[in-house]
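JOB MANIFEST
job_type = single_chain_structure
chain_count = 1
residues = 234
[input]
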Amino acid sequence: MAVRSDGIQTEKRILQACVRLFLENGYHQTTMLQILKEAQVSSSSFQNLFHSKDGVLLELVKFMFENQFGIARNVAGAALPPVYVYAAETALQITLAELNENLREIYLEAYTQERLLNYIQQSTAKELHRIFGPYQPELTEQDFYQLEFGSAGLMRGYMANPCTEDFSLEKKLNSFVTMALRGYKVPEEELQQVLAFISGLDMRSIAQNVMEELFRQLAMRYEFSPDGLLPQRQ
């Protein structure tokens, strides 16, 4: 039991160090040497638990994605159809990436690395089937898993290109949601209603609140102070 307890404490220290370093410095700028020093663990202990820095990132990505549809349901409200939840959830991801460059980097890695991307696609397929199945009843959950290859690529493309004066956040969200919902065969009239709903939300404020809560939950889970990680509200 003592060995198991030591292993759990070592794992917690590694996760605690990585979360703080990834959010403070960025994923790519964080080195293994920094992680080992911050966590006060040996290279062999790290390798036994996570194998690589990517293994820690997978745990962080799981944490970020496991409740995103639940958050989006709160944004959309219980009375609206599920397609509004999808639009709110994807709009939230894109907006979070605009608010924090280190989060953008984490999201881009999640939509790039094969292992992480496969986790997202597998965990999202059931939700996509539930949301968009009524528009394409002939398709199975496996079909929606394969369709997610396209929508995940679309998401990565929009995240990878920061907003500019000519390409505002509002324009980016409108463009992404339009392309995604058309790809899932949402009727044009309903699509326009969803776009009007998203445009009526203050996505920056919603995403800021979500980001602050996300950082607080991470701090509670891995027992560190979130001070200095949160950007100033504009």
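[summary]
Residues 2-25 form the longest helix (24 residues).
The chain has twelve helices and no strands.
exit_status = 0
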